[in-house]
């Protein structure tokens, strides 16, 4: 298995999402305007997830501990420089989602809930400054898009690795033999 190139993943996600230093700086600038409402975002997020039958089983009995981690991430979303360190952290989140067998669509769906709640708050906070509201939404979309891309990349890699491990166990094939066969067919 090839080592993970976090720098390349970070750069790719930044390009794809349109996240640049200017948008990251804008998120840090608006943070004081919305930071006291991030816990509310997490509350709405988990209320909505608990209302979806397919997600409820993954959450029951764990919501309070998940909320605390989620709120920390929401604060990071507005204070991050979206560096390799942040990328590595989110990549790990994708790995964890695979380990708990969280369906991949939950990640994208969950990000939609977060975005819609934050956009609603931006509408309230910047009701008298439409230009700022639009800039804030643009920066948010870039940051959440970046985050989603990282988690999905991790999810895909971790899922493939888990499937390969199952295949090797079922067949009794060694990893070295598999790698040699894979090289022969390149």
UniProtKB/TrEMBL annotation:
<dbReference type="Pfam" id="PF11563">
    <property type="entry name" value="Protoglobin"/>
</dbReference>
<dbReference type="InterPro" id="IPR012292">
    <property type="entry name" value="Globin/Proto"/>
</dbReference>
<dbReference type="InterPro" id="IPR009050">
    <property type="entry name" value="Globin-like_sf"/>
</dbReference>
<dbReference type="InterPro" id="IPR044398">
    <property type="entry name" value="Globin-sensor_dom"/>
</dbReference>
<feature type="domain" description="Globin-sensor">
    <location>
        <begin position="10"/>
        <end position="158"/>
    </location>
</feature>
<dbReference type="InterPro" id="IPR039379">
    <property type="entry name" value="Protoglobin_sensor_dom"/>
</dbReference>
<protein>
    <submittedName>
        <fullName>Protoglobin domain-containing protein</fullName>
    </submittedName>
</protein>
């Amino acid at each position: 298995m090839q080592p993970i190139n976090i720098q390349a993943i970070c750069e790719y996600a930044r390009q794809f999402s349109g996240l640049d230093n200017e948008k990251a700086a804008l998120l840090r600038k608006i943070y004081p305007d919305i930071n006291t409402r991030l816990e509310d975002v997490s509350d709405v997020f988990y209320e909505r997830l608990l209302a979806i039958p397919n997600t409820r089983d993954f959450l029951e009995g764990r919501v309070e501990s998940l909320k605390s981690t989620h709120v920390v991430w929401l604060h990071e979303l507005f204070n991050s420089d979206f560096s390799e360190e942040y990328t590595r952290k989110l990549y790990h989140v994708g790995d964890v989602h695979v380990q708990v067998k969280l369906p991949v669509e939950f990640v994208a769906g969950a990000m939609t809930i977060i975005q819609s709640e934050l956009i609603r708050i931006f509408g309230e906070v910047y009701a008298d400054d439409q230009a700022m509201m639009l800039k804030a939404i643009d920066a948010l979309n870039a940051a959440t898009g970046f985050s989603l891309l990282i988690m999905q990349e991790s999810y895909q890699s971790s899922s493939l690795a888990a499937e390969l491990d199952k295949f090797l166990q079922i067949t009794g094939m060694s990893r070295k033999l598999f790698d040699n066969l894979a090289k022969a067919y390149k």
